[in-house]
Amino acid sequence: MTGFAGPTLEVRDLKTHFFTRGGVVKAVDGVSFEIGKGRILGLVGESGSGKSITGFSILGLVDPPGRVVEGEIRFKGENLVDQPEERLRAIRGNRIAMIFQDPMMTLNPVLRIDTQMIEAVQAHHSVSADDARQRARDALGRVGIPSPDERLKAYPHQFSGGMRQRVAIAIALLNNPELIIADEPTTALDVTIQGQILYEVQKLCRETGTSLIWITHDLSVVAGLADRICVMYAGKLAESGPVDDVLDRPLHPYTKGLLGSVPSRNRRGSPLAQIPGMTPSLMSLPDGCAFADRCPRAQGDCRQAVPPMAEILPGRLARCIRPHLEDQA
Amino acid sequence: MSEALIELRGVSKRFVKPLDVAAKIANAIGAGMREEVVHAVDRFDLAIRPGEVVGLVGESGCGKSTIGRIAAGILPPSEGKIFYRGTDVTGDKLRGGKAQLGTQMIFQDPFASLNPRKRVEDIIGEAPRVHGLVDRVEFGTYVDAVMRRVGLDPAFRRRYPHQFSGGQRQRIGIARALAVKPEFLICDEAVAALDVSIQAQVLNLFMELRRDLNPTYLFISHDLGVVEHLSDRVVIMYLGRIVESGPTTELFRSPNHPYTQALLGGVPRIESRKRDFAPVTGEIPSPLNPPTGCHFHPRCPHAMERCRREIPALKEIAPGRHSACHLNDG
Fold it and tell me: 20 to 30 A Cα–Cα from A110, which one of A88, A314, B84, B230?
């Protein structure tokens, strides 16, 4: 795969559906995006928007009754959909790594950190245990864990929450992945600890050229971190584009509503520009645009057909037939 | 201090984990094991005027929820006194009558704080009925009115909590608190579990209630954006102590304490793009074994020898603004 010039990851029309007794839940329904080498993509959405399932789908981690029913996931040109499990296993944790919200999803509570890290290295590379330990030590050092030699011998419960998340990140880094998928990794952490993790991650992408997908509900975290933003709503992308454009001049009414809901965007003490209603159930989505019932601009034709994801301005896509063009400078 | 609705004076709270049998036996042969003591709150002073909204901010383990529980009368303080409208209500476990009913709490987790086996009308209506605020005849209309007040459709009154979304459940929790006509609402991370767009709806509800009913709020949160938006006055805590307090606008404009500066600097904001994150170093120390002197000194960029030895006093640095830092003496 040397000399591959295309994007690190290209997702085309991904559909991940869950076939439950109550009906088909279209958790991810036609999502497309790509991410280049060393770039950071922010995948933003509220609970139930399908952002995490998108991340899981890339790694082939969707369990029944869910499965990827359509679409392509091209990692350096290779389509990962329908690859045999052995092939995915060779990629997972090696060339694509994942960081979860809860670090205990990565860490085994009854094994020492060094055991787990050495295992992760040796699963993909035939190196001696000493070399693997050396790599583990270096990875802990890179994420800012003090005295990594001693900390290697500790168990997960002997770390604080922030430190545990660092260990999980260090494990993700072990095999120098080309892509990291981070699913809300700082949501459970305190502000000062979140700042530390963001700092480490940012430094890492700059230094190693690793691409990063940062999945979050928090627009202000991706504002400082990402190059591009994709906003998801009810299983589909609502809008995507460069971070400054999307946050300063949103095209989609949902993005605009989301931004208006953030307290710091409003005058202190004044009512927040809230979005009325609540997220629709994925089992019974309305016809047409899924956001129409909550949208201040919706008219009759919004409820007739699902609007296509269209390039409304150069490099900026939105799934809306009445985008906020009046805000564009 | 008769003007304050509620006042905490010199309140401390220690949680002690007693020695178990094995440790006692070990001590009998001279192991010298000691009880584990967590100083959750250390000599905390706070007075809230009627109608004021005070934001209490801090990171996990700083004791902010403990303060909320002590103010609500759920938890007795280890030391110090609590005054409600000038009357000492310390240790008054059920705070007979007005003080107790007048103080209500709204909790973080809308899934854990509602009884799953009760209908919404009972969750909301039980307390006012038991306390004789409404009689049997008015009960239905009263519950309807409270539900409408928080933006719930009264048609849903016979439903159970699991039939509602997270945001609606939080509204039920708010309705339950409002049903006894409280003067003082303690919101402990009341919007932390909600999605951004739902959070905005609930924050708007809090502001509407303030306009219409004018309750006093103690708003406990780790989210500085939320606190800045709602509060008149902000109190910043670190490891059980107040490090800084002051009117919201001024405190956010020019934070005095190095910890407040670090905290405000660390908050990601939509306005700041592609920023270089420059973190505060170090971990939050364990409250089991807090640092000597100023609790923040191991992480403070300005720490001096004196910070290691001496606890800085909370001093007035400008009218209405207090900060606990030795740098202000220099």
Answer: A88
